Amino acid sequence: MTPSSFGLSQWWAKEARNGTPVVVTMENPNYSVVEIDGPEAAAFQSMDKGRGKNAKQFTWVLLLKAHRAVGCVAWSAAGLWALLGAIKKRLISQQGVAVERDKLGKGKLLFRFLRGVLALSLLMLAFEMIAYWNGWHFQKPSLHLPENLHIPETTEIQGWMHSAYLSWLSFRADYIAYPIQALSNFCVILFIVQSADRMILCFGCFWIRFKKIKPRIEGDLFKSDDVECSNFEYPMVLVQIPMCNEREVYEQSISAVCQIDWPRDRLLIQVLDDSDDETIKMLIKAEVSKWSQRGVNIVYRHRLVRTGYKAGNLKSAMSCDYVKDYEFVAIFDADFQPNHDFLKQTIPHFKGNPELGLVQARWSFVNKDENLLTRLQNINLCFHFEVEQQVNGVFLNFFGFNGTAGVWRIKALEDSGGWLERTTVEDMDIAVRAHLNGWKFIFLNDVKVPCELPESYEAYRKQQHRWHSGPMHLFRLCLPAVITSKISIWKKANLILLFFLLRKLILPFYSFTLFCVILPLTMFVPEAELPVWVICYVPVIMSFLNILPAPRSFPFIVPYLLFENTMSVTKFNAMVSGLFKLGSSYEWVVTKKAGRSSESDLLAAAERESKPANHPQLLRGVSDSELMELNKLKEQQKEFLHPVRRANKIYKKELALALLLLTAAVRSLLSAQGIHFYFLLFQGMSFLLVGLDLIGEQIS
What stretches pass through the bilayer (predicted)? Predict the structure, then answer.
């Protein structure tokens, strides 16, 4: 169509529209006709155009929503199909799976308890289903059964089954509901107290940020006008790297520590190897020899008998005669990679502060985005460092030593009795004893040391068991010393009530009891109920506060809430074993590492490998046979580092809880309890995924 013809059609359409606009309003059953002329007509015409345009937009929005809904349904169906496939493969076919084996006394009692509760819940569900289909359900009962529940007369009872059901209603209201409700109220009180403690910690963290409170360095320890006396400003520092069969990470940790910026004549590095694998020992020895030939003051120590685990290793190293010449000791686990200026950021805080015994740095994680499990761990640990450690360090000058990425004044260690082998949490043990002796701690939130997070659920589960059984074991041992110590009453109260009881004992107790046992039981005993705010509102608020230090993790708030409740069974089992000194309370399993490196470490490694001419010089003290053996070991190491999948684990306690929660979810449908149903459903699915080992990766 030409422009002239287009203009003619516009003119013709304009002329054709001249006249009196008419609006017809429908008033059923009659019609009313209204004539509109003048300026109002233009307004109505523009409104009609807008309505047509809005109708098209509305149609597109509906189509878009429908497309998204179909995609969501398809995604949900695919996920459900994959879950059913995993269940068939791992539970029914048992292809490539290994069932979790509980040692004597470890977890067996808890598993039997869960199995018994599950059997009772299935029996009660079957009973309730029969009553529901026969129309025997009445109004929602309460603890006062005769006032709110209509009991049929004898003539209304329909057979022995109906009579048995009525007897069950009366029995559960008189004898079962009250104990469950009492335990529920007790756990709710603990829940409120622990939530208040967490909110106070968060408020303290906000206050620290608002006031910009952080430890300051007075003066410059390393500034000296006299070049000859500049070394006098650097104190003697001992660096210890304890390790045990750390094939994946030994090289990068030793490399990072050897590159710390500190005068070499005032720094000694101890590689404390407890490995029982001859191949790994030779590899670590070769790495130490390489850095020693570069001029680094580094020594290799190996114990023939691994007694006391890490505490025994550190105690043995501190017994060396040359340790008396050093003032400070820095400790790094095998997967930690400190920056070159770590000592220059930590040691200056000791100057002019003779009461300071420990400077603790924060951890950062090179693999926090590796999978869902590492993302959820990152949320927990960010809250631990950003909120718990920082607030306690600023306001109390006390917190639990994290076992690594910290610098101790050696005099503080000696005054506190040194490393003891009585628990698996030697770091918390020495921190408590130093606190009782009056030493102060500083936490540096802005000094971060890269490390690894466990990428498999098996490794994470074993780590959490040690982290929650050890404190309760330590509490039993150090309680008399805390009571008889000379510290103030409020410090004793903080140590006993908050540090140990509230954050180490009460938290796993109420989390497991309230959300994994009481809540599903209330579905079968509706006379005892939990309020909605306990199930939904307060946990969501607490999860929101936990995620604040890691704002990028907000999309994972729901998985985080569900996973924390899922881990409560492991933490509760560990807490009980430590408190009552069961067989697994003194069990140390080295956390498996994947050997992840940060970007800077990879670049440094590439730069070192790009200089092959230096290698003969580094190995000039090694014989030809030793060199051939070392090359052979290096080839074996390369083959070992290829990812190898191993058998998946089946966790019986988590599966039993999954079935219990899903059974309770089915029962909640009969009562039309929406929030309870969704919580039980998703929490049961979370337990199912963990029980089938479908979260995280498996590292060989």
Answer: 66-87, 113-133, 175-193, 495-524, 530-548, 655-670
User: What pLDDT, in 10s, does the model give residues 548-557?
Assistant: 999 999 999 9
pLDDT given for residue 236 in this prediction:
96
Distance CA 369, CA 308 (A): 34
* CA distance readout (Å), 435 to 390, 397, 398, 529: 16, 9, 7, 43
243, pLDDT greater than 90: yes
Q: Which residues pair with 272 in a beta bridge?
A: 242, 301
Our answer to whether residue 197 is catalytic in this structure is no
Tally the residues of the chain: 700
Sign, CA dihedral 58-61-66-69, equals: negative
CA gap 573, 96 in Å, rounded: 27
Tell which residue, 198, 205, 278, has the closest CA to residue 544.
198
Q: At residue 276, what is the residue type?
A: D
Q: Which two tokens stand for residue 126?
A: 């079957």
Q: What does the alpha-carbon distance between residue 532 and residue 189 come to, in Å, rounded to a whole number? A: 15
Please give the structure tokens belonging to residue 575: 């807490």
Indicate the residue type of 196.
A
Cα 560 off chain centre by: 8
C-alpha 542/C-alpha 182 separation (Å) is: 24
- List the strands of the sheet with 356-365, edge to edge: 298-302, 267-273, 237-243, 328-331, 406-409, 356-365, 440-451
Residue whose token pair is 């009579």:
163
Q: Helix 426-436 crosses helix 309-318 at what angle (to 10 degrees)?
A: 60
Residue found by looking up tokens 């130093």 in the block? 434
Three-state SS string over 606-645 comes to HHHHCCCCHHHHHCCCCCHHHHHHHHHHHHHHHHHCCCCC
CA angle centred on 554, ends 548 and 560, rounded to 5°: 90
Higher-confidence position of 18 and 429: 429
Query: How far apart, in whole angstroms, are the C-alpha atoms of residue 108 and residue 251?
Result: 40
User: Biggest alpha carbon distance in the chain?
Assistant: 111
Give yes or no: 274 in active site: yes
What does each C-alpha distance from 511 to 8, 71, 487 come to in angstroms? 79, 35, 32
Query: 109-123, 137-151, 317-331, 631-645 — which one is most confidently predicted on average?
Result: 317-331
Chain position carrying tokens 């049929």: 152
Residue type, 142: S
Residue tagged active-site, from 273, 333, 427, 693: 427
| Cα distance between residue 412 and residue 438, in whole Å | 9
pLDDT reading at 492 higher than 80: yes
Report the distance separating Cα 283 and Cα 285, nearest Å. Answer: 5
- On whether the CB atoms of residues 521 and 660 are closer than 8 A, the answer is no
Spatial contact of 342 and 388, defined as CB atoms under 8 Å apart: no
In one-letter notation, the amino acid at residue 10 is Q
Non-local (6+) Cβ contacts of 612 within 8 A are none
CA distance linking residue 112 with residue 114, whole number of Å? 5
Q: What is the DSSP letter of 25?
A: E
- Among residues 274, 429, 601, 693, the one annotated as catalytic is 274
Nearest to 334 by CA among 404, 272, 253, 255: 253
Distances in Å between the alpha carbon of 48 and those of 23, 54, 55, 172?
A: 11, 10, 10, 66
Q: Hey, which residues does 301 pair with through a beta bridge?
A: 272
Q: How confident is the model at residue 5 (pLDDT cuts 50, 70, 90)?
A: very low
CA dihedral 653, 658, 660, 666 (to 10 degrees): -170
